[in-house]
Specification:
Helix 1 runs antiparallel to helix 2, helix 3 packs antiparallel against helix 4 and helix 3 runs parallel beside helix 5. This protein is mainly alpha-helical. A 3-stranded antiparallel β-sheet has the order 1-2-3. The chain is globular. The chain contains 5 helices and 5 strands, in the order βααβββααβα.
């Protein structure tokens, strides 16, 4: 949305913007979608698209970051009113990390390295449950990252995808195949 530089969660069927409150929703799907755009830009060697998507990713990270407790909010329920969805979801954190790794691999951008360290530190420090003797991750939590032993969900997809894509990127960078593409 050119008005505020975020991807809207909902669009009309013809891809036009929705008027009213429903058109003010911006969520963690923004960073998730943007890493996929970054990946496509690498595949097609489209430097302009890559740079535009990287800038948009950075904007999403700046807006969705919780300056009080760390981590990314699940999104904004209303952009104009500044109403966040204060829940913290593991998938939002790791999808942002995938995008950041792409920017690091292909642009070696300092801002991406700084964000990566911040997000990875929050994710491991708050959502990894080793400190409670559990080999799991806190999939969904409140704003403070409170751990509760009961849940009806477990992460099944985003975390393994993050791990696999990050390992592949690290392997490419270790092999000297990083640097700007396209």
């Amino acid at each position: 949305n050119p008005e505020y530089g975020l991807l809207n969660e909902h669009l009309n069927h013809d891809m036009s913007r929705i008027a009213g409150d429903r058109g003010q929703v911006a969520t963690g799907h923004g960073p998730e979608t943007l890493w996929m755009v970054l990946d496509e830009a690498v595949r097609t060697r489209n430097r302009e698209l890559f740079d535009r998507a990287a800038d948009c990713l950075r904007r999403h990270l700046e807006v969705l970051w919780d300056d009080v407790y760390g981590g990314f909010f699940a999104g904004l329920r209303h952009v104009e009113r500044g109403i966040p969805d204060t829940g913290k979801w593991l998938w939002v954190q790791v999808e942002a990390l995938i995008g950041l790794m792409l920017v690091i691999e292909h642009r070696d951008a300092r801002w991406a390295k700084e964000w990566y360290a911040r997000v990875e530190g929050y994710t491991r420090g708050t959502l990894l449950l080793e400190r409670f003797g559990l080999p799991l991750w806190n999939f969904q939590t409140d704003r403070r990252g409170t751990f509760e032993r009961h849940t009806d969900r477990i992460e099944h997809f985003h975390l393994p995808r993050y791990l696999m894509l990050t390992l592949l990127a690290a392997d490419r960078m270790a092999g000297g195949r990083n640097g700007p593409k396209g």
